[in-house]
């Protein structure tokens, strides 16, 4: 396999809460005024990414992993996960509040859905004034208190809402009750899973007057009722990797790129770059290509030496 930075066709998802910022802010080819998500790299069933550039254009990520497992995934990732791509990368535009929801852990997700759980993180790319996220409970709660407030439609009274701004980072372990608030664009990194338990949706209805399905019975056992500290603080030193989140599922760094940086990898893991600001270039084996805000790249594990140059803010993600 001739390794090079892979880009994929965005998989666009219309959502009841979506808007148009994925086009105006990230230059995605959205098809409606309610596009909520751009899945940048995915192997979720029926939503498998297709290569958009280079000699592998038109091939699916799953097919590439089948043909070149160690070259794409890396030796350590292959040993840990087999021929599965373990992460899902998205950009989200919340024109309205998302539903209040949570995700099950690996054990519950495996038992109930034959899926990974969904540990995830958010990087706030843009936030309107007064925009907020809901992350966990204000104080330790219980199933009884949760149900009492849900029935009384006062659930927001016991949930922790945080005003946010560009650059804020939140790490959401499984079981954390959460919601992205209106007026926020987010880069999301998560386990490969599309399992969401929706517990409250603000009584919204679709064009046909139907409310979206809730998953209360499934959620009650999966919720973490403890108070959590989800926000992560991090340094922003130029031209180095500033660690933001490190867990068993992924490590995410911020690279504030200003100039040139040589990267040397060991072949253990693929690397993904999400450009959250600016423009930059990657050079490898005598070739180079330009990228801009909103671009997401998969660097195959076998591409171990390359250079980054430009003026940009990059999220760097790999499995350590």
UniProtKB/TrEMBL annotation:
Active site: 198
Domain of life: Bacteria
GO function terms (MF aspect): mannose-6-phosphate isomerase activity; zinc ion binding
Keyword annotations from UniProtKB, A to Z: Isomerase, Metal-binding, Zinc
Domain Phosphomannose isomerase type I catalytic: residue ranges: 8-115
Keyword set includes Oxidoreductase: no
Pfam family, one: PMI_typeI_cat
Residues bound to Zn(2+): 103, 120, 178
Cofactor binding annotation: Binds 1 zinc ion per subunit.
Names of the cofactor(s): Zn(2+)
InterPro entries (alphabetical): Carb_Metab_Reg_Kinase/Isom, Man6P_isomerase_Firm_short, MPI_cupin_dom, PMI_typeI_cat, RmlC-like_jellyroll, RmlC_Cupin_sf
Annotated transmembrane regions: none
Name of the protein in question: Phosphohexomutase
């Amino acid at each position: 396999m001739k390794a090079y930075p892979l880009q994929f066709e965005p998989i666009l998802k219309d959502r009841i809460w979506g808007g148009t910022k994925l086009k105006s802010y990230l230059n995605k080819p959205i098809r409606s005024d309610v596009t909520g998500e751009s899945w940048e790299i995915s192997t979720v069933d029926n939503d498998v990414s297709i290569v958009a550039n280079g000699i592998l254009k038109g091939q699916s990520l799953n097919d590439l992993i089948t043909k070149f497992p160690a070259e794409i995934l890396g030796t350590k990732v292959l040993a840990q996960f087999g021929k599965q791509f373990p992460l899902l990368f998205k950009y989200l535009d919340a024109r309205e509040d998302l539903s209040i929801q949570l995700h099950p852990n690996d054990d519950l997700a495996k038992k109930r859905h034959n899926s990974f759980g969904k540990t995830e993180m958010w990087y706030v790319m843009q936030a309107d004034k007064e925009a907020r996220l809901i992350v966990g409970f204000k104080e330790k709660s219980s199933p009884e208190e949760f149900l009492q407030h849900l029935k009384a439609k006062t659930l927001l009274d016991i949930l922790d809402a945080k005003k946010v701004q560009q650059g804020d980072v939140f790490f959401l372990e499984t079981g954390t009750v959460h919601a992205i608030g209106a007026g926020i664009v987010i880069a999301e990194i998560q386990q490969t899973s599309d399992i969401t338990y929706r517990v409250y949706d603000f009584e919204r209805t679709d064009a046909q007057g139907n409310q979206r399905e809730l998953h209360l019975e499934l959620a009650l056992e999966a919720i973490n009722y403890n108070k959590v500290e989800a926000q992560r603080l991090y340094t922003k030193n130029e031209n180095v990797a500033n660690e933001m989140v490190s867990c068993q599922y992924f490590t995410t760094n911020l690279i504030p790129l200003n100039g040139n940086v040589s990267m040397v990898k060991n072949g253990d893991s693929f690397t993904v770059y999400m450009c959250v600001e600016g423009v930059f270039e990657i050079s490898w084996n005598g070739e180079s290509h330009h990228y801009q805000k909103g671009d997401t790249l998969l660097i195959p594990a076998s591409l171990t030496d390359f250079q980054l140059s430009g003026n940009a803010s990059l999220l760097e993600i790999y499995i350590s």
